[in-house]
Write a structure and sequence with these properties.
With 167 residues, this protein is of the alpha+beta class. It contains 3 helices and 10 strands. Helices cover 28% and strands 37% of the residues. The strands form 2 sheets. A 6-stranded mixed beta sheet has the order 1-5-10-2-3-4, covered by helices on one side. Strands 6-7-8-9 form a 4-stranded mixed beta sheet, covered by helices on one side. It is globular and about 40 Å long.
Length: 167
Amino acid sequence: MKAKTGILWASTALSLAALCAISFPAIAVPESGGNRQDRIAQTIVTLKRSQNRWIEVDLSDQRLTGWEGETQVFSYLVSTGKAATPTPTGVFSVQFKRISDRMRGEDYNVPNVPYAMYFSGGYAIHGAYWHNRFGTPVSHGCVNVRVDRAERLFNWASVGTPVVIHR
């Protein structure tokens, strides 16, 4: 019975992930071409005209801002990707959330990463308990937030919340 339950949960999780990808697709803006910044800027204008919640990450300022339409709700220093492992720019949405997750890469293996909100593949906004260098790019491409602030953001945003990342 346990094996069937596990398969059911895995199947449900995959179905949910597929549904989120269909319902709230990430719209990655290409790095090249003069149109990229215009598309990001137009998305920001559109989101500010709405009353919807959305997240802005400014890579130049290393700052994440939570918005409700044009009203700023909070603004936090973050740590985004280093030059060798940059954070992608573009217009995305929160695809799925995990209260705690293990993150692994070629040169890292971090357990219990808190309040992860994935917006594009393995890229997420999440709490970081292993450093205090917010305001400096130090990550492998994710958006690192102080744990207490990541918790607030996690509880404030839902699956489908737009995420706009720009320089």
